[in-house]
Write a structure and sequence with these properties.
- The structure is a single chain.
- The protein is α+β, with helices and mostly antiparallel strands and 716 residues long.
- The strands form six sheets. It has a five-stranded mixed β-sheet, sandwiched between helices. The protein has a four-stranded mixed β-sheet with strand order 17-16-18-19, sandwiched between helices.
- Helix 19 packs antiparallel against helix 20 and helix 21 packs parallel to helix 24.
- The longest helix has 19 residues.
- It starts with a helix and ends with a helix.
Length: 716
């Protein structure tokens, strides 16, 4: 953290008077031509917003004004609050327009900018979040950072009406203090982006991460730490893979307990399915109600792996329900997944999702309504307290007080009858809820988040034996390839209103490659493997750091910021570097080309200091490392054709929990594409004209077999 008393002074400096009035009189500002739903939400603000770009910085230099940078996203509740309280207010707008060049950024479209300035905010203030507020020079050098600011200050928090004059006083009269702050910020950024490695990650690092999770685990409610609680499914996937690698049952139990508690809590939408962003409390009850595509993707993958590890059908059912929500509400007709649904509707957070007891009785009747209310913790006087106001609310958030089986036993009700009643009630309540005003849907299609959802659907279709999920993944992958891949073969970031645009980031390549690699193993269509290899070559050319290794967030020739960032930490989604490393290891196994594996291990080494300092913050990186080091298996199935009999046998192989495994199918009738991509498979043929299984591990191969039971034994 930056320890700079000058920073605190910027807030407390003497307030100067405001200057002339400058209103927009209802006209759209410069955001009106944007494709970003978030920027378009602000197009009618009286604030004279600029999108990020050369025009804004040129104007700031011309007028010698500081930049007011506001970063958020379309479904961010507190972004809406700040807009209403501050950016829609003419007095605040007047101050901003007179004193700043104001820039709006959609963090989902420009993650590199968000990452840079969020790290500054966390260093300056010890916290972060959205909306993110940065004040900086026309040269993009920040000297003030914060998050949400109301119009007027309260409880020792400055408001915009106090903050802006203080900042302008500093800009005009305290340039020395500003320069000192900038120097400290730049020094921090240089130090935090120093990737000189000393100690490679190893088995001790992996076990230290497990110890970290064990120490933070909540024995009562699952998850880690107190509140707020985020799903962080990549952490749960790490624990499941740790269990598979080291046999530690405690790792599996922590993951399963967390998933069960999440599924029971209010963070899960029990009526329409899908998970809300996070819980504000430790028991997963009171959520922030926005629904993000990336959460649905990553959470479903955690449930899938948990199902593989336990064969618990409830875990599989949860995954199916998530996919039901995504296909129904978040999938574009012609392929591609939308980004998010807002927390707010009709100006209130969560209004779409909450119920009074009378509403439930009206829809279900007294008898069914009574059972539903008991099962889902519905109270006559409401069951939650509003986070912002501290006011007891008269509505209810449905959550499972007990599992259905436990409730049936307690109430002496037949479990099958109870399940039927609850399902019927849920369907009736869903139909009724659909009549309400829906939260805003962020309908932009992002390459990276689509990659995650494609991976999840492909994986789910394979594990759950549901072709409908694979079909959805194929449809969306083809959409991305056709609409978000340029003539030069490179990806673009965003599609909206039939327009593709914006420069990609490492996550776009890493996550989409992940998706199509999962699709290859779900379909064995060689075209997906070809595309993955092509995109990986571009990814290395455009993002890989040849000197210090690892992948930059932005491409060569991309946006010039005060530092070119690389990132290894997991956030709401896995680290792009971690996923890129995993993809490279898989490509090495598929193709037999060891250069890919070398890139992966150089990436691990590049971030080794940071990983060793905070192992549990690098769960995805360590999952990738385990994949590369814990005797991954390569399985090649050779058959005459991919008919139903062969597919059934492949499904048997894939049904076991073997996360450190790749699968390939080779037609004995000839597959020139696969021969070219993976020349090491040229010697793999049918034996006795029967489907044959070749299983290799740690640079040695088992005797090929035509018996599925023998092949399954090889995998144990």
């Amino acid at each position: 953290m930056i320890k700079n008393p000058n920073y605190l002074l910027l807030i407390l400096l003497t307030i100067v008077g405001c200057s002339k009035k400058n209103e927009r009189d209802g006209k759209m500002n410069r955001l009106g031509n944007s494709q970003s739903p978030y920027l378009l939400q602000h197009k009618n603000n009286p604030v004279d917003w600029y999108p990020w770009g050369k025009d804004a910085f040129d104007e700031a230099k011309k007028q010698n004004k500081p930049i007011f940078l506001s970063i958020g996203y379309s479904t961010c509740h507190w972004c809406h609050v700040m807009e209403h309280e501050s950016f829609e207010d003419k007095e605040v707008a007047m101050l901003m327009n007179d004193n700043f060049i104001s820039i709006k950024v959609d963090r989902e479209e420009m993650p590199e900018i968000d990452h840079l300035y969020m790290s500054v905010c966390q260093a300056m203030t010890g916290r972060g979040g959205w909306p993110l507020t940065i004040v900086m020079t026309p040269d993009k050098e920040p000297f003030f950072a914060g998050t949400y600011f109301p119009k007027k200050g309260n409880n020792n928090q400055p408001g915009m009406m106090e903050l802006i004059p203080s900042l302008m006083n500093a800009w005009e009269n305290k340039q020395d203090d500003i320069k000192k702050t900038i120097e400290q910020v730049n020094d921090y950024l240089i130090r935090s982006n120093n990737y000189a490695s000393s100690k490679q990650i190893n088995e001790e690092t992996i076990k230290n991460a497990f110890v970290n999770f064990s120490e933070k685990f909540d024995d009562e409610f699952g998850g880690f730490g107190d509140s707020p609680k985020f799903p962080s499914p990549h952490n749960l996937i790490f624990l499941l893979r740790y269990y598979k690698t080291y046999g530690d049952i405690n790792a599996k139990n922590m993951a399963i307990e967390t998933l069960e508690q999440m599924r029971a809590g209010g963070i899960y939408d029990h009526i329409g399915y899908g998970f809300h962003r996070y819980a504000t409390d430790k028991r997963w009850f009171l959520p922030h109600f926005e629904k993000m595509l990336y959460d649905q993707a990553m959470i479903s993958m955690a449930y899938l792996e948990a199902y593989e590890a336990t064969k618990d059908k409830t875990l599989a059912k949860t995954t199916e329900q998530i996919f039901t929500y995504v296909i129904r509400d978040m999938m574009r007709k012609n392929g591609g997944f939308f980004s998010a649904e807002d927390a707010d509707s009709e100006g209130e957070e969560g209004k779409f999702y909450i119920w009074t007891d009378k509403e439930i009785d009206h829809v279900l009747g007294k008898e069914k309504g009574g059972i539903f209310q008991k099962v889902y913790g519905i109270r006559r006087d409401g069951n939650f307290i509003d986070e912002a106001s501290g006011r007891a609310m008269p509505e209810n958030i449905p959550y499972l007080k007990l599992s259905l089986s436990a409730f049936a036993e307690l109430e002496n009700i037949d479990i099958n009858e109870l399940s039927k009643s609850i399902n019927e009630s849920r369907e009736l309540l869903f139909i009724e809820r659909e009549k309400r005003i829906h939260p805003l849907k962020d309908d932009k299609i992002l390459t990276d988040w689509n990659g995650l959802m494609i991976a999840a659907m492909a994986k789910g279709g394979k594990i759950l034996k549901k072709p409908v999920y694979i079909d959805a993944a194929i449809k969306s992958a083809d959409f991305i390839i056709q609409n978000l891949r340029g003539n030069d073969g490179k990806l673009k970031k965003r599609f909206r209103n039939n327009q593709a645009g914006l420069q990609p980031h490492i996550d776009d390549y890493a996550f989409f490659i992940w998706g199509i690699l999962e699709l290859y193993e779900a379909t064995f269509e060689t075209r997906f493997l070809i595309s993955a290899l092509e995109l990986s070559k571009i990814m290395v050319d455009d993002f890989y750091d040849d000197e210090d290794h690892g992948f930059f967030m932005g491409p060569n020739g991309g946006e010039k910021l005060i530092i070119r960032a690389k990132d290894s930490y997991d956030g709401a989604i896995p680290s792009g570097n971690a996923v890129a490393a995993m993809n490279c290891i898989k490509l090495s196994k598929y193709t037999g080309d060891l250069k890919w594996e070398k890139i992966a291990f150089k990436t691990f080494k590049a971030f080794s200091n940071k990983i060793n300092q905070a192992p549990s913050a690098h769960a995805s990186m360590l999952s990738s490392f385990m994949f590369g080091t814990k005797k991954p298996k390569e399985i090649v199935i050779v058959g005459k054709e991919l008919n139903e009999e062969v597919i059934d046998k492949i499904k048997q192989l894939q049904s076991n929990y073997n996360p450190h495994t790749i699968y390939m199918f080779k037609s004995s009738n000839g597959d020139s594409d696969l021969d070219n991509l993976a020349p090491w498979t040229k010697t793999h043929h049918l034996i006795n004209n029967k489907t044959t299984y070749y299983i290799c591990e740690d640079f040695s191969c088992k005797m090929p077999t035509t018996e599925i039971k023998t092949a399954l034994n090889y995998l144990d």
